[in-house]
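Journal club side-thread
Mid-discussion, someone asked how the predicted structure for our own chain would compare to the paper's figures. Pasting it here so we can look after the session.
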Amino acid sequence: MVKISVGAVPGDAPALLSFSQGCPDGGVSLTLGRKGAGRKRKQEVAGEAVDVPGLTYLATDFGSQSVKKDACKYAVAVYDKAKDELTLLPTDHAYLMRPAGAWNVGNLGETGSSLANYERSKSLTTVFGTVKKQRAVKANAAKIVHSDNVQGVDAVQSAMQTDITEGLGEADEAIFTLDGATQSMDEHRKAMLPAFDQDATSAKKIYDVADIVPKNVQAALEKSQEGIEKDWVKSEEAVGAGETHRHWTKYFGETCGSELLRCIHAEAADAVAAAGGDARERVKKEASAKKLRARLLFMHGLVTVYRSVAGARDMRADKDPIVEQLDALPGLAHAHIFRKFTQERRRAKKKDTEGADGPGVVQMGQVECSQLQVDRLLLHIVVLALTQNKFSVELECLAKDLGLSVKRLSLLAREVGCKLTKANLASTDTQKQRSVTVAQLNAPLKFPKRSQGPRK
């Protein structure tokens, strides 16, 4: 059995050397010295790698003040084989050997003193500290935000630097630009909006509708219309092509509960009726109307998901009621909307006492949105409404479908590049004369300018 004893510090006090970045296999030749005088005197250790030319190490004991801050005491153990005895010799000197010169790969963003003390404390705790202290060091390190892990840090750094435009005649005409802030805003728009071309020469080419309604979802929505129309024929509600189009207009107004969708489809139905006996033109108009209906159904799905999530507590709603409201949409459309605009979650299991096979257990699904996802969903709805209504929409009508204020919707319309105007509508059989706000999308696309703040 090994006998352990604590010995007195000999004349030649032992020292601890920590090579946090690794020690060469060939060893290190050490040289001891002192730095400073009086109370500021510190002991210094210099080392030179034996097998690596030019690699040198340098360390000091950081003074007595740093030693007092250590979380634990250090000792050197000396084992005597003859006596089978282990002697612990206390030491107050613990050196962190850091590569000097070109081999130094420390962080350049901090001062030498603060960096050295931090590295010393971290390295010594990692090598000699207790498990509890090592966990505390890892927890503190996890709280440090490094520039490599911050998105858009280059843009922020660029915004902090001002560039004076060259070629100006007088100094008071200097223009200071914040290109970094502009770049950061552009990246945010690309993440929030559908794919867009800011250099497009016509409004039709600005936004890519296929980025909102993919081709496979579009095809599934067009095919799902056949089942709805067959139900109408069976119930003798529609017997001809003209009646089918009128029933679709009624469907968007009553079943979907959207005045905007009803008005958009009514115009398409009138275009089909205007084709008359021109078979070629009629086929073209009907194909266009079918494509329009698929996108309107998808827009109805987006609006339903938004209203369900926005009206729920913590913006978290049960998934099954939403799917029941969108029974006319194929499952592919449901999956795309949930995957792109929400976070799907699993809810606690509950008993199902009304199952066809008797009582059982089912797992309820939920969808959840952050405020950023809600804004992204609304922006896609606004873009889809514009592209399906000749790039113009009455905000009062869309605001009613969404349950939003016109002021809130105006901000969203500006964010997608719309120009807002006031229009006076004449009175009709059902409505009085009124003033409405119209959002118009024109080319070239111009986003709202970033506020420069109050001028002094």
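Post-session note: Residues 102-115, 161-179, 355-363 have pLDDT under 50 and may be disordered.
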